[in-house]
Amino acid sequence: MQGLYALYEIISLLTNVLVMLIIIQFIIGLLFAFNVVNQSNDFLMAFYNAINRLLDPILRPIRNMMPQTGAIDFSPLVLIILLQIILIVLASVIRSV
Q: Would you put residue 19 in left (φ > 0), alpha (ψ -120 to 50) or beta?
């Protein structure tokens, strides 16, 4: 039982890190879109590109399955919801054991 709980905690931690990266990506994208921060800011642009490279392999399959919605990308929201569903299912499985 302790091993399952430890595994759940690790998965929960990784899920929280992914969600935070998605939120950071969203905020930096907004800052660029509304010209609050110029895209010539090398540090922020490098950080934004690094986050995009980390998240793109996860978000690409979701984007391919979703209908085109124009300029709004709902795939990060779908990923966050899926991660939360996985955590809820895992928690209920661990509780039932």
A: alpha
> How far is 4 from 69, CA to CA, in rounded Å?
40
Counted domains in the chain: 1
8 to 2, 12, 80, 84, 90: CA distances (angstroms): 10, 6, 17, 12, 7
Q: pLDDT of 70-88, one tens digit each?
A: 888 899 999 999 999 999 9
Question: For the segment 27-61, what is each residue's pLDDT rounded down to a tens digit?
Answer: 999 899 899 999 999 999 999 999 999 999 999 99
**Cβ pair 62, 78 in contact under 8 A:** yes
